[in-house]
């Protein structure tokens, strides 16, 4: 088996297509070499080797050592050095690299190959003893931490101690001799703590690092990350071993990261940061504040530190050329890492850059309009769920701001919440239903769970490419990074600002678009839906087959949904129209009435309200289909509870409170969700369905006259399990329709259909279809009744199920295709068998979930219906499903 692939000197054994085998980093390093770009020579050990290692008690395959040594010899030849030769040492970087970027894994070991002997040669080679010993101690520190598992704080303590002893403030002030003393102490603490010496043999160092990369695939952080991002554990990671280049050889050297377009806005300008005389991860670590790469960015940022463009014009222009080349080659925005060693540019990494939803849209639209990709490709590139970021509020610009801190606008959008200082608190409080803002000095992969739980993130340290910034953008959460004028006192749980301290639990607002942190909560504005968003949505609409409707019952929701592009209402939950103050009393009267006459009196009060509501909805929807569902109240949600409420209803009904209490008692149900709701109510009290039908038909006539549109109401009967239930209710509705047509002297077109939300309905769908002109899958109840899991009580234990791997995803959020989905498939088939032209839709929560929408397309449903804010997500997901 070939376990090792080499690259360098303008050729490579791998290509970009081999990401499964070489990992993203390795495949792209190979590709850059093939393109003739300056890449330090190296080798990639395959993900298959990792799987072999993990599957064979952490042993290596037989041929691996030989293949690595052959490749090392090749690297040595290209680099003009030799790994085994302490006089001309080949120093290496070792990095992990999975198929998908995975911040949870071991990242990097630099300067591998240094030991007591080769450090002398390095000093002589570069003519800088101080540099050599600084490199050596960095290597010992990094290696001991990530390979040998010794906490880096041990070394930081020693370093602080020694600096104090020598009277230095900064690391850069230590002399070569002083570094030697630090190194001696490092070595002895390793022996003390680990009972073994720091390895001097480069081969031993290398294999230690390779094993550590492989093993890091199974560390707790990586496992959590994989769970959060649905990454299969069978992928494994590759290892990239590469000749070192030094960005810290003095003022002619530098290291940096860049995006070929702005990752926050998508603007087509090179965007990046670098540090002079720095090594590897110094830029992303956020310890020194980095400089801008381009002069334009420097001017815009108002920085007085020179740009790379000014400082190293030759390296800059070469870099600029490479950026364009890579973007054209990959046809996407790239995220690059580079090092300049004594004026010579080296490329260390390229990959598709992480970006905000806004930037993602702009880049996809720009690339499609420039003809670099097709419109279909542009549609396919946007994660529908990411649109959520664009639909979320921003701070109303007209209100005054109480700014308590400011930093970099690291991830756009705004959010308000209570201050928390640790990721665990963030999780705890958010599970308790609170909204929180995570405030940290800086973040690391250990904080991911807290970042997920938080509404927004603030750090007092770090740049635009710091961990907090990159991760927040990926998650679509507002983030302000590097807010230098605040201090985070973790121990006392205080956020120290220039205008005084804030305690844990106090409310702040993060504005990730401006980089400000505000005291308190602030009014927010809804987003603009034109521009790139509008363009992409237009393309998506041209590519999809399914219609997208909305679940709405208020004019406000219906209007929002129309703005978001809803093509009708798929579910109007009429019971929700009675929650308001003046109506709930009449509603309660109706429910609590002792006889039909009492019910009819209450219904007579409700009729004009219902009619007016429907007229408004029909007007807003301008002839688009509107599905109105007959009353489906889980009764307990409507019954009066407090003494005050009971007194109020008793008075309205003109009955004794005592009598009312008896009635309440009689209506009590043990399982209201499985109780007297849905069509069961209409079967018991057909006058309710009649009143609603009357309101609908009268409204259709009225709205039709007002708007000139042909209004065709779709009346939907809920919670049907038997065809006979449906037929019974239908008969009453048809009678009302005929009455009104006579009264109005005009014909009214309408449809009568049912929800399929009980397993029995799915099983008997062919028979039910004979009486139903449409089906709408009520996947909330269908999930509840198929699993036998109460939808209102599920959250308390389903998260445990997820943690324990019993279920992958919450079936109330993403459709359980294997189970509930099969019932839907069967019902769709049977429904079509019973009535070939039956209209099929979905109106449970799943109607707005991209994965579930793909399944709906597979079943060729006619439409999905979801809450207004998810309409754009559904439009895009439906388009992707149809591609
Ligand atoms: C459903 O059950 O999926 C549904 C849409 O109805 P409701 O959520 O109102 O029960
Ligand atoms: Mg339901």
From TrEMBL:
Record has Lyase as a keyword: no
Entry's transmembrane regions: none
Entry binding sites for substrate: 573, 629, 757, 778-781
PROSITE patterns, alphabetized: PEP_ENZYMES_2 (PS00742), PEP_ENZYMES_PHOS_SITE (PS00370)
Binding-site residues for Mg(2+), renumbered to this chain: 757, 781
EC number: 2.7.9.1
Domain PEP-utilising enzyme mobile, residue spans: 434-515
Alphabetized UniProt keyword annotations: ATP-binding, Kinase, Magnesium, Metal-binding, Nucleotide-binding, Pyruvate, Transferase
Domain of life according to the entry: Bacteria
UniProt-listed Pfam families: PEP-utilizers (PF00391), PEP-utilizers_C (PF02896), PPDK_N (PF01326)
Record domain Pyruvate phosphate dikinase AMP/ATP-binding: where: 20-54, 60-294, 310-359
Catalytic activities: pyruvate + phosphate + ATP = phosphoenolpyruvate + AMP + diphosphate + H(+)
Cofactor dependence: Mg(2+)
Residues of the PEP-utilising enzyme C-terminal domain: 530-881
Coiled-coil residue windows: none
InterPro entries reported for this sequence: ATP_grasp_subdomain_1, PEP-util_enz_mobile_dom, PEP_util_AS, PEP_util_C, PEP_util_CS, Phosphohistidine_dom_sf, PPDK_AMP/ATP-bd, Pyruvate_phosphate_dikinase
Molecular function, one GO term: kinase activity
SUPFAM superfamilies: Glutathione synthetase ATP-binding domain-like, Phosphoenolpyruvate/pyruvate domain, Phosphohistidine domain
Active site annotation, chain numbering: 467, 843
Stated family: Belongs to the PEP-utilizing enzyme family.
Role summary: Catalyzes the reversible phosphorylation of pyruvate and phosphate.
Identification of the protein by name: Pyruvate, phosphate dikinase
Upper lineage: Bacteria, Pseudomonadati, Pseudomonadota, Alphaproteobacteria, Hyphomicrobiales
Gene name of the record: ppdK
